[in-house]
């Protein structure tokens, strides 16, 4: 499976789980992403995935808000908006041209393929964070999990230095590739909301 196919199929899987979330879910709900409550995480995911979609289209980042950190979209339609944005980001990366060359992240050029992997990780891990916080199970096919594990593993050291990944969480050797990828990104695959 190619990265292009994995991000497209993975985003569809995550979006399906997110679309059925009750939009009235408490904004202060804890998430597996320890620094973010649900509202903060949804706004973050909407902002970063929109920025990553712009990069795939070879558009520059917004000079005033490059990573969408000022996004405020936690309203009655947020599950649909987030699901749509995750799929739009995947669609933007479902083009060979998106993975070619280099992209300017504002602090220098980076290989487009590395940014594509970052987009894949962002869609899958933050999508899982949101779905899991809202009590929705996500079942990711093994082929997608394998690709995600490869993407997380190749970026883990840098991801931790940048604060994008938490400390690695130990996961049973018999766990799925998706669960191993979550652990490598600093998530506990067994995390569930309280109550």
From TrEMBL:
UniProt cross-references to Gene3D superfamilies, sorted A to Z: dinb family like domain
Domain Mycothiol-dependent maleylpyruvate isomerase metal-binding: 10-131
Origin: domain of life: Bacteria
Protein name per the record: TIGR03086 family metal-binding protein
